[in-house]
Amino acid sequence: MTDQKDNHFRCGYIAIVGRPNVGKSTLMNELIGAKVSITSRKAQTTRHRIMGIQTDDDAQFIYIDTPGFQTRYNNALNKNLNRTVRDTLSTADVILFVVDAGVYGQADQQVLDLIPENVPTILVVNKTDKVKEKAELIPFAEKLAALRDFAAIVPVSARQRFQLNRLEEEIRHLLPENPPFFSPDDVTDRSERFMAAEIIREKIFRYTGDELPYTSTVVIEQFERKEKICRVFAAVLVEREAHKAMIIGHKGEKLKEISTEARLDMEKMFGVPVYLEIWVKVKSGWADNEAGLRAYGYE
Ligand SMILES: Nc1nc2c(ncn2[C@@H]2O[C@H](COP(=O)(O)OP(=O)(O)OP(=O)(O)O)[C@@H](O)[C@H]2O)c(=O)[nH]1
């Protein structure tokens, strides 16, 4: 139990924002204690809004992960990503603005500029494990404190779970009084079908390194969930024949590795054996086409 004076339940949406690669997905996963969002060494892996839900005796925390704010390419897909960030922020009850310990640049400032002044915002200084002299964090935090009237400033290490309880307490106090919106057993509102696509996407990005453009996407064409087996038929949509070759690899070896790793992750997550088929298809120009994006679930 907490030191709350009232007995009223609290529930609300917590948006996690920050420039790519500051550790937003890792933070959300550690806060809710389950692997829901996909993390990667490579920036910009998170395209969809993903919610992770954590419920205890007196509060329900609904976390919203956001895509990294992106300014580099100006196509429909990225305009869509930035719009998602703004929509996420305007509907949040609490915002976690995540920065990398000791690093604050233009990209961070661009994200801060998107955060509405009237939504309580906690500054989360992540990756403190990388800073040997912790005293160095004090002037850094003071500099950032001058930028905005933050509700709290909490240094954490998402990876080492350092100070996550403190962060959770700060969030709890800022949540509005509401009954729980979700059943306590819900971890995410995304279906297994969606998670299957996310897992495949993560493997593709890991195996193709930096070469494959972000414009490729994964569509689950068929998803059959039985008690003892799960069958997944997925299509990877790419823009060019050359991209298709990057994923398939020499004699199909890369695609085989991607499929095997994705299947193993799905089996771990779904708790049953998984039969997985992945096809790579060339679908030119889909990332520049708003209707195309909607068709693939980027509302
Ligand atoms: N040293 C250290 N590394 C961390 C910490 N938290 C996350 N990372 C690493 O930082 C990298 C990026 O983490 P993500 O969680 O994918 O970052 P993100 O902000 O969600 O990235 P996008 O989806 O690209 O916006 C990964 O290699 C993480 O392992 C931390 O507390 N300490």
Architecture overview:
Residues 44-48 are annotated as: G2. InterPro entries: G_ERA_dom, GTP-bd, GTPase_Era-like, KH_dom-like_a/b, KH_dom_type_2, KH_sf_prok-type, P-loop_NTPase, Small_GTP-bd. Residues 200-284 form the KH type-2 domain. It comes from Oxalobacter paraformigenes. With 299 residues, the chain is α/β, with parallel strands linked by helices. It folds into two domains: 10-174, P-loop containing nucleotide triphosphate hydrolases (Rossmann fold, 3-Layer(aba) Sandwich), CATH 3.40.50; 192-295, K homology (KH) domain (GMP Synthetase, Chain A, domain 3, 2-Layer Sandwich), CATH 3.30.300. It is 34% helix and 22% strand. A six-stranded mixed β-sheet has the order 2-3-1-4-5-6, sandwiched between helices. It has a three-stranded mixed β-sheet with strand order 7-8-9. Strand 5, helix 4 and strand 6 (152-155) form a beta-alpha-beta unit. Helix 6 runs antiparallel to helix 8. The protein is globular and about 55 Å long. The model is unreliable at 1-5 and 38-48 (pLDDT under 50).
Topology:
Layout: E1 10-17, H1 24-32, E2 50-55, E3 59-65, H2 76-90, E4 94-100, H3 106-114, E5 121-126, H4 137-145, E6 152-155, H5 164-174, H6 192-208, E7 217-225, E8 230-238, H7 241-248, H8 253-270, E9 274-282, H9 290-295
Parallel strand pairs: 1-3, 1-4, 4-5, 5-6, 8-9
Antiparallel strand pairs: 2-3, 7-8
Helix pairs in contact: 6-8
Name the features.
binds guanosine-5'-triphosphate; 9 strands; globular; alpha/beta; 299 residues; three-stranded mixed sheet; 22% strand; GMP Synthetase, Chain A, domain 3; disordered N terminus; Rossmann fold; six-stranded mixed sheet
